[in-house]
Design a protein that fits this description.
two-stranded antiparallel ribbon; 4-stranded antiparallel beta sheet; alpha+beta
């Protein structure tokens, strides 16, 4: 499969997941905001890249963030399990590292993350 076809298929799948997931407010009505802060420390890059993604109650309950590596456009960092367990336990923050799914590119690295959830 060509890269263009893979990218198109990944976009189609992402749209379908958003449709099926419903909104964050339908998953947990008490959540007012979710923030994922990520720090990429790619091999060969001196300064780590910081990235922040915010979710509101109206956002789709899909917590998959695209990898920034040019060699794996269809790969993601999947925070779904982490965030759902945080909401279940009513946690407000979590830290850790997560790997890009399905990426074998040597310049890809694990991402250090901080997740914060604000409740109403």
């Amino acid at each position: 499969m060509t890269r263009k076809v893979k990218t198109a298929a990944a976009k189609t799948e992402k749209k379908q997941q958003k449709l099926e997931s419903g909104s964050i407010s339908s998953l947990s009505p008490k959540v007012s905001k979710i923030t994922i802060s990520m720090k990429y420390a790619q091999i060969g890059v001196l300064d780590p890249l910081m990235r922040m993604v915010n979710f509101t109650p109206d956002s789709a309950a899909v917590f998959k963030i695209s990898c920034l590596c040019s060699d794996c456009p269809e790969s993601v960092f999947d925070f779904t399990r982490i965030i759902k367990s945080m909401m279940k336990a009513h946690k407000t923050s979590a830290n850790g590292e997560i790997s890009c799914e399905n990426c074998s590119a040597p310049e890809c690295s694990d991402v250090a993350y901080t997740i914060t959830i604000k409740y109403k």
